[in-house]
Prior knowledge:
The chain has helices spanning 9-28, 31-37, 49-54, 60-70, 87-96, 109-121, 160-170, 194-200, 216-222, 245-259, 264-279, and strands at 77-81, 101-106, 128-132, 145-151, 171-189, 225-237, 285-296. It is an alpha/beta fold.
Amino acid sequence: MGDLDRSDPASLEELHEADRHHRAVRDHQVGIQGRQQGHQVEAGVRAPMEREIEAVDGDAAGLEDRRELLDPRAGESGVDVGCGVGHLTCELAEAVGMSGRMTGVDASADMLAGAAARVHSRRLDDRVALREGDATATGLPGESADFVVAVQTYSYVPDIAAAIAEAARVLRPGGRLGVLETDWDLCVYGSPDFELMRRIFDGRWRFEHAHLPRRLNRLFADAGLAPTHAEAFPLLETGYDPDSFGAGMLALGRNAAVRHGVDRAAADAWVAEVRARGEAGDWFFCLNRFMFVATKAGVNARTGGPATSA
Ligand SMILES: C[S@@+](CC[C@H](N)C(=O)[O-])C[C@H]1O[C@@H](n2cnc3c(N)ncnc32)[C@H](O)[C@@H]1O
């Protein structure tokens, strides 16, 4: 992956684009039933950042499953690494209640500005702190958090072992780490040319770690964390909607592929054919994301309770 440059402007824009797409999916997910059976995604892929910040309540349903797996409790302190515009940070802040605390950490000042607006509009300023920082060096005190969550963040972090070690450092004994990531090999279109689809959606062109879920338990163990839970969240689209996540991903994949040497005309023809098939009633898109949870050994000295798993 030495030829990949994720620091160029296109890659940066892609990161923000990815967040918008990710948000659109979350906006339309329907919780446990949806993740087990798959479901249609409806609209809103290209919502501008301003609209997203205003739409503070739009994704509550999609966040339930993540919250459930993390099991946040009243009075706990949590950290959201790569918090983006703060959807999950706010949900978790609600869950830990007035006596709890959430800290959102992100490397992007723009994302943090969006998060700050969201926190303020939800009147959570008193229990949410936001800070600019890297996943590998958050600057947070050691053993200060009851849980750490990183949703679609670690796939962008070059030194993933350092990022997970940092989360382990910040966790109190008994604390939980929840990581949600996509395996980009499990991104499939009903395509007439499977090989070209594979090349266009080669996740290595867009991420430092395109298949992170497969490695998470090993990485957890190396950081001294005990894997406690893993769950899949499939996203399935069987009807074409130009605003769906899968339809939006077509341009994202095509652009990355062309930047990395896939023939432009071939990529454009492939996208056009997939779209045309969709419009003709022949649409299939599926993507798999996974939530992994690990626990730091020990007894929670703050609550006096035993270490618990999520
Ligand atoms: C796809 S977005 C996900 C945002 C959020 N977790 C969510 O699910 O809505 C990825 C986020 O990770 C942040 N990020 C990327 N690399 C990072 C790093 N090394 N340290 C901290 N944040 C990082 C980006 O700025 C962006 O906000």
